[in-house]
Every structure is written in structure tokens, then in C-alpha cells.
Amino acid sequence: MREYVAFLLQMIIWSSFSLIEWLSGRDRPFFKGMMLCVFLYMAFLLARKIGLRTRQALWTTTLTAAMYFTCQHFVWEALQ
């Protein structure tokens, strides 16, 4: 159950990342990469705070980010 809660909250984090990335459209790629690292770390800390073990939190964060960005890619491809 904790994994599911972490998944849902991390999806909210990734949605806010997309919004902030859209708002900072003129930033250089280096700063966008730094922002991605910050959001990855926040998502990982959230999973740890919920009570997941380190390995579980790492896997949950990785899978959530991969799933979100894959779905985001397919949605943008379908819209264009």
C-alpha cells in the first residue's frame, strides 16, 4: 500500500515538474538537467519519508519517472 501512495504522490511531483519545465522554456539544457535532478531527489525523499526502504524508494522513483516520461512522450506525439 505504501508503494501505491508513493507512486501517486510522485506522479503529482512529475506533473509539477512538467509545469515548471514549461514555465522555464528559455532555460539552457544544463539548468533543466539540474532541475530534473532536484525533482528526482525530492521524489526519492518523499518515498523514503513514507516509509519505503532505500532500495524500494529508488525503484519506485525510477519506475514512476520512466512511466511518466514515456506516457508524456506518447501523449505529445499523439497531439502533434
Oligomer: single chain
Main beta-sheet strand count, sense and barrel state:
none
- Write down the domain tally: 1
Query: What is the molecular shape?
Result: globular
Query: Radius of gyration in whole Å, from Cα?
Result: 13 Å
Q: What's the number of helices?
A: 3
Q: What ranges have pLDDT less than 50 throughout 5 or more consecutive residues? A: none
Beta-strand fraction estimate: under 5%
Keywords: Membrane, Transmembrane, Transmembrane helix
Transmembrane segments: 7-24, 30-47
Secondary structure elements and pairings:
Elements: H1 2-23, H2 29-50, H3 54-79
Key structural traits:
globular; mainly alpha; 80 residues
Characterise the protein shown here.
- By secondary structure, the protein is mainly alpha-helical.
- Helices cover 88% and strands 0% of the residues.
- The N and C termini lie far apart (37 Å).
In summary, what is this structure?
With 80 residues, this protein is mainly alpha-helical. It has helices at 2-23, 29-50, 54-79.
